[in-house]
Amino acid sequence: MSDGSSSPAPELVFVGSKPFEAFGALGDLELEFEKAEVEVLKYQIKITAPIYERRNPLTSRIPGFWPTVLEATPDFDQHVTPQDVPAFAAITSLNIIRPNPDEPRDFIVEIGFDKERNDLFEDEILRKRFWWRTVEGKWSGLVSEPVEVRWKDNKDLSNGETKRVYEEWKAKKDEREGKGKGKEKVVVKGKGKGKAVSNGEEEKKPSLEERLKGGQPSFFTWFAWMGKGTEYGLEGKEKEEGEGEEGEGEEEGDEDEEGDDLFNHGDELALTIADDIYPNAIKYFLETVTGDEEIDSDMSVSEINSEDEDDDEEEEDSEDDGIGSSRPKRDVTDDSEDEGENEGNKRRKRVKK
């Protein structure tokens, strides 16, 4: 019998080479599973892309569709500051593009805004591209490049940081491609303090906490997120056309750099948008407008409207009854049977999330 105390995990003792051979074989199988998942994703994208093309213009015609979806997404609000809310209210479209048939894990996030209602920045569409990058034996995951957000005067929610990151990255990329003025000096202008390089020496930048003054970064700092080893850029002939080895053209040690991102875990947010918010947008929207967290994906709009009308009629009947109404009460047994029948009907209309 157990005395209630937790016993230590048994120590694994391997005798001979068979267990190690099994571990090696399991590792090989994991690689095969990953390749299979990529093939499944390729097929899924192929058959769903035309459907999303038909869906996107319809969702853009529904007022407040995407702001409602984003608000309904679990934990998404933790990335949104109160200052971001006016821009989120002006979102009119959200689209995920998979531009690389050979690597379906690459994608582009496009967010469109109503220019008349968005008074924070000039852009009507913000696009951010993500590449799936693998460094053999070390890590694999998403990387990106900073996007220039053209903030309006005195409206920059990043206090100049997104501009600083973009211009610094652009200067380094141009220098690497031979477009810069050499390695003498790179100075990035903007409200934020950049990194000045003079005679091979780098000036120490203030920490992220110091630059943001301890506050939560705006959602729009996500567009400056890069990830590991991408400070010199990923766009290029080899990357675009898939030529060359992984990491070709990167400086030695770049793949180990964590980067100095304004937005933590930008890859996780990108995957949330691409793999959860975008495909499940209708579900999140209907959950909000109907107040039902278990929506049947097979229900038509007419069925939903019919349910709403029935609910309205029930509310009117209850109002007619009022407090102390003389209307006779229904038999308890009948009421219980009807309630069970109604619940059964509702369950048949629902599916799992």
UniProtKB/TrEMBL annotation:
<dbReference type="GO" id="GO:0006334">
    <property type="term" value="P:nucleosome assembly"/>
</dbReference>
<dbReference type="GO" id="GO:0005634">
    <property type="term" value="C:nucleus"/>
</dbReference>
<comment type="similarity">
    <text>Belongs to the nucleosome assembly protein (NAP) family.</text>
</comment>
<feature type="region of interest" description="Disordered">
    <location>
        <begin position="180"/>
        <end position="211"/>
    </location>
</feature>
<feature type="region of interest" description="Disordered">
    <location>
        <begin position="231"/>
        <end position="268"/>
    </location>
</feature>
<protein>
    <submittedName>
        <fullName>Uncharacterized protein</fullName>
    </submittedName>
</protein>
<dbReference type="InterPro" id="IPR037231">
    <property type="entry name" value="NAP-like_sf"/>
</dbReference>
<feature type="compositionally biased region" description="Acidic residues">
    <location>
        <begin position="241"/>
        <end position="261"/>
    </location>
</feature>
<feature type="compositionally biased region" description="Basic and acidic residues">
    <location>
        <begin position="201"/>
        <end position="211"/>
    </location>
</feature>
<feature type="compositionally biased region" description="Acidic residues">
    <location>
        <begin position="305"/>
        <end position="322"/>
    </location>
</feature>
<feature type="region of interest" description="Disordered">
    <location>
        <begin position="290"/>
        <end position="353"/>
    </location>
</feature>
<dbReference type="Pfam" id="PF00956">
    <property type="entry name" value="NAP"/>
</dbReference>
<dbReference type="InterPro" id="IPR002164">
    <property type="entry name" value="NAP_family"/>
</dbReference>
